[in-house]
Write a structure and sequence with these properties.
By secondary structure, this protein is an alpha/beta fold. The chain is 43% helix and 18% strand. Helix 2 (47-57) links the parallel strand 2 and strand 3 (64-69). Bound molecules: 4'-phosphopantetheine (PNS). 4'-phosphopantetheine (PNS) binds next to strand 1 and helix 4.
Length: 161
Amino acid sequence: MRKAVYPGSFDPATNGHLDIITRSAKLVDKLVVAVLDNTSKVPLFSVEERVEQLKEITKHLPNVEVMSFSGLTVDFAKSINSNIIIRGLRGVTDFSYEFQMALTNRSLDNEIETLFVSADTQYLFFSSSIVKELLSFDGNIKNMVPKVVEEALYKKIKTRG
Ligand code: PNS
């Protein structure tokens, strides 16, 4: 069974992430979307909230599972018997960081391959940080994130004041 891991912060998940998930799910038997529980960064959404949002937006994709993890991505991949890491590539600006990360992961485990998937051109400028930036200035984020995430974002800023 071909199993891949798509790791990320997903704070929040964007339509670009969802496009990568949809495309990647077609390439493998099982795709595990892995949300990093990073204690050193203060996220907007808790890891539980991000997992729930991703579960909701991928519920129509039967071979996609959403999990959280902490520690190294390669260790998580190994723990679920996967040797493929999926990463989205939006363009040259992503490339050097992603290439460095892929080579680091390979140096940690030579059996694990990183596959780069690019989202549809309409999503290429989307990012979680841009969404948060727009949100903080009341900019329109409608087309950038799934409905569930959009609602959660507005709820979050309301409760934060
Ligand atoms: O969505 P992001 O923030 O670009 O995802 C980055 C992520 C989570 C894939 C990366 O930070 C990661 O793999 N972190 C886990 C720690 C790790 O394995 N580091 C080694 C690779 S540099």
